[in-house]
Amino acid sequence: MTPRAPGKHALTFLFITVLISMIGMGVIIPVLPTLIQELTGLDESAAAPYGGYLLLVYAIMQFFMSPILGGLSDRFGRRPIILFSLGAYALDYALMAFAPSYAWLFLGRVLAGGFAATYSTSMAYIADISTPEERAGRFGMIGAAFGLGFIVGPALGGFLGDPSFTVTLNNWLGIVGTSLNSGLETWLQENAPRLPFMLASFLAFCNVTYGFFVLPETLTKERRRSFNLSRANPVGSLIQVAKYPMVLGVLIAYFMMQVAHNALPAIWSWYTEAKFDWTPRSIGWSLAFVGVTAAIVQGGLTRRVIPKIGEPKAAMIGIAAMTASFIGYALFSPSGGYVYFWILVGAVGGFTMPAMQGIMSRAAPPDAQGELQGAISSVMSISMAISPITMTNVFSHYTDPERDIYFPGAPMLLAAIV
Q1: Roughly what angle, to the nearest 10 degrees, separates helices 280-296 and 263-276?
Q2: Which of 250, 281, 253 is nearest to 360 (CA)?
Q3: Quick one: which of 352, 340, 331 has its CA closest to 412?
């Protein structure tokens, strides 16, 4: 059956959906340490593992629920799953914005991981409505939203989450001859770590309302299949691709690379706050810079460099650059300015993922490509569960004021070793 031609609003909605999902993920990173310390009453060192628990439960829920939601979208259609997931995201961020305790924050991350289907289901939606010639360009559009969201999200979160935001806001309002009243100004300052969550919830609510009116269903009834829980198995694809030795070997290396790489979102805010005394705004700007450099490498250089030097060499260059950047963060960053240099070095690590995926894709037969992508997704989810809890506990150990060695860069050094 010929894919259904989408209206311009449907594609716009999908772009905004992925953009908001990534902004929602990135916007909370700069303020999460402050909010966790506020809710737990613990100092920075003791509170860090609690941040790891939030990332751990998110990854576990995503690992088990993503294939289930994917199967449900094959059974009931893309539209209800996308809208349901986006609505759940909006409620989840509202819950976290007003969480009175860490337990409520934890529950919010459980729900977020369980309903994190907007990206994968959006890709399936595009596959439904696109011809083979259109597919790559439209997938690229979603990839651009993914990257743009990670640039905007941390910068916005760092800006809103900094108590000095009220000063900036008053300066802006002064242009039109007004200012915040004292009660609102005090409320904004006291709730600064929660403002990014409120913004993410508001944006998601607006988008789900927009999608309700403009997003048509694309999966016709004759193309739907019954839901089978045994097929929604995140481990099955790993078992299948283990039959191919080259794939298995590279997949193990890919897993180790992801464990190291996931140290960055897990520990970045804690590390920069402890080592350089950075504010949420400084953290947000640095993460936005990470997003810009990653977009340049992954969006432009990879497709030019990898075909010229080959996938194995590109993968090794990428791994070497990642290793150097982690060592730089840990041992050769006496001040915050050095971090930006190591971000540039680490951006070359963007060669690693597409190069490794290309090697595995060549080693797997044509009829096993779907299983391979499922295995890669499973490995990414497992690494997202292992890395945060490991890295935050290492950080906590080496920043404990009662210990002889104070070394906030310890997780970065461990990532370099991995």
Answers
A1: 140
A2: 250
A3: 331
